[in-house]
Amino acid sequence: MTAKMNEGWIELNFPALPEEKTEPPAELQEALGVKASYVGKNIFYLVEVESEETVRAIKPDFPKLLEVPARGVIITAKAGAEVGEYDFVSRFFTPEIGIWGDSATGSAH
């Protein structure tokens, strides 16, 4: 991320980090305890699950999550049909730096 002044405004640049589809390591599957419909990896693991409810209910095994070779883990799903305000939901976990759950998920997006 970079920030610069532009005509009195702060301009932020959030470069994309494309992920590659991958098979999840055993530690990741054990730590999350959910079935993934997609797993991608860059510096993070991106784990897509089937429902918003799964994202909201997940309770990772944090000691096991510390064994996952990544800076963090993003869990995401398409938002439920009853919610028209947003398209998807996400949670972000970075236990290696002491963040057990980032509700804003800014650095993940």
UniProtKB/TrEMBL annotation:
Flavoprotein keyword on record: no
Keyword Signal in record: no
Keyword terms: Isomerase
Pfam families, per the entry: PhzC-PhzF
This protein's GO CC annotations: cytoplasm
GO molecular function: isomerase activity
Family: Belongs to the PhzF family.
PANTHER family: PHENAZINE BIOSYNTHESIS PROTEIN (PTHR13774), PHENAZINE BIOSYNTHESIS-LIKE DOMAIN-CONTAINING PROTEIN (PTHR13774:SF17)
Protein name as catalogued: Putative isomerase yddE, PhzC-PhzF family
